[in-house]
């Protein structure tokens, strides 16, 4: 029997687990605040950001949203970040990626005060994570570790294959999986667009994390019997639905489900976990900035 990994359920448990920390902060006069900054007309980005704001409201985090025109001068974004860095009510800042081409993405990541960088993308935070003492683990890979924990997936000694090497998913996921730490200790292979024999690598994998942004790249025939399959991909493909599209992952669910031991769906798998871990990092950030001890789930 294949187990469906329910990201909505585990994300709800994480959100519940944040209530005590949020209470402790409020008792000391602090409401955790998360600022989201959107500089894009992309409808998918707009959807994600509004979901993040709704999550904040649900758990009692103060959500602040800033929207900039996609063709506004880059300076407007840099100035916005400076203002949010200086605002004591803002404990976490997320600039939705991608930013327009005329904006220097690396400058954006460096501009965010590292203690408010709840994405964990600032070079200082990347360095800390790689060195094994993360301040904020990046939300998607951290959420995946929480899913593995919730479904008793043993990573120690496992063969893991990460498909994709992006700065926001593939690289940090690989880093966490190879760490000498809980939900690490996996023997990890990273595949990318120049990989010659993706199927050959996948055939040996006990754990597959698919984050390529290619609809249904990974199919059941490539997988090892009983593998745990984590599908990060969120691809909008044209379909005769009310919205005119449907979401598909980087894994062909129908064929993969036949072979996998445990598998995440899209939607309802990794996506809700990414959002839950953003709330987690925001509560942690508020604790660090106010010296209030907070218990985290
Ligand atoms: N569920 C969630 O919470 C999140 C979902 N996503 C989704 O996850 C997917 C990946 O996102 P992200 O990491 O930002 O994407 P990027 O486009 O930044 O990176 C994609 C990676 O996949 C590799 N790749 C592309 N094609 C292939 C292929 N045919 N075979 C093997 N590797 C390939 C690329 O290789 P190369 O480096 O050589 O170009 C690259 O490393 C997207 O669908 C995105 O929407 C992203 C973030 C969070
Ligand atoms: N600075 C920054 N940080 C990010 O974390 C970040 C980013 N930029 N840019 C884009 C990607 C993508 N991402 C998602 C988060 C949640 C869902 C999510 O909640 N998905 C739901 C449903 C989505 C839907 O219905 O459209 C699900 O999978 O069930 C998806 C994608 C965060 N990202």
Record keyword descriptors for this entry.
11 helices; alpha/beta; binds NADPH dihydro-nicotinamide-adenine-dinucleotide phosphate; three-stranded parallel beta sheet; Rossmann fold; multifunctional enzyme; 2 domains; Bifunctional protein FolD; binds 5,10-Methenyltetrahydrofolate; 297 residues; single chain; one-carbon metabolism
Report on this model:
The protein is 40% helix and 15% strand. With 297 residues, the protein is of the alpha/beta class. Strands 1-11-8-7-5-6 form a 6-stranded parallel sheet, with helices on both faces. The two termini are 29 Å apart. 5,10-Methenyltetrahydrofolate binds next to helix 3, strand 4 and helix 11. One of its GO terms (cellular component) is cytosol.
User: What's the CATH architecture name of the largest domain?
Assistant: 3-Layer(aba) Sandwich
Main sheet strand line-up: 1-11-8-7-5-6
The hetero compounds bound to this protein are:
NADPH dihydro-nicotinamide-adenine-dinucleotide phosphate, 5,10-Methenyltetrahydrofolate
Tell me the number of helical segments per DSSP (H or I, 4 or more residues long): 11
The separation of the N and C termini measures: 29 Å
CATH fold-level topology of the largest domain: Rossmann fold
What is the class of the largest domain in the CATH system? Alpha Beta
CATH superfamily of the largest domain: NAD(P)-binding Rossmann-like Domain
Keywords: Amino-acid biosynthesis, Histidine biosynthesis, Hydrolase, Methionine biosynthesis, Multifunctional enzyme, NADP, One-carbon metabolism, Oxidoreductase, Purine biosynthesis
Pathway: One-carbon metabolism; tetrahydrofolate interconversion
Pfam families: THF_DHG_CYH, THF_DHG_CYH_C
Family: Belongs to the tetrahydrofolate dehydrogenase/cyclohydrolase family.
């Amino acid at each position: 029997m294949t187990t469906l990994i329910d990201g909505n359920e585990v994300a709800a448990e994480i959100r519940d687990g944040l209530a005590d920390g949020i209470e402790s902060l409020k008792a000391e006069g602090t409401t955790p605040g998360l600022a989201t900054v959107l500089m894009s007309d992309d409808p998918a980005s707009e959807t994600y950001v509004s979901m993040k704001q709704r999550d904040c409201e649900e758990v009692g985090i103060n959500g602040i949203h800033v929207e900039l025109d996609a063709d506004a001068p880059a300076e407007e974004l840099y100035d916005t970040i400076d203002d949010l860095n200086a605002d004591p009510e803002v404990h976490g800042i997320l600039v939705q990626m991608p930013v327009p081409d005329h904006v220097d993405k690396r400058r954006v990541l460096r501009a965010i005060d590292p203690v408010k960088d709840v994405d964990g993308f600032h070079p200082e935070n990347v360095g800390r994570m790689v060195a094994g003492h993360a301040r904020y683990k990046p939300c998607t890979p951290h959420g995946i570790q929480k899913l593995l924990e919730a479904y008793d997936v043993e990573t120690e000694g496992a063969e893991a294959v990460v498909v994709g090497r992006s700065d926001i998913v593939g690289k940090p996921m690989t880093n966490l999986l190879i760490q000498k730490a809980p939900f690490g200790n996996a023997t990890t292979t990273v595949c990318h667009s120049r990989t010659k024999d993706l199927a050959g690598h996948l055939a040996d994998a006990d754990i597959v994390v698919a984050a390529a942004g290619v609809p249904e790249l990974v199919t059941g025939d490539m997988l090892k019997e009983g593998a745990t399959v984590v599908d990060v991909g969120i691809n909008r493909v044209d379909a005769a639905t009310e919205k005119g599209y449907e979401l598909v992952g980087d894994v062909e669910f129908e064929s993969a489900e036949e072979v996998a031991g445990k598998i995440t769906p899209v939607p309802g798998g990794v996506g809700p976990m990414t959002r839950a871990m953003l709330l987690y990092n925001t509560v942690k950030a508020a604790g660090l900035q106010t010296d209030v001890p907070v218990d985290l789930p």
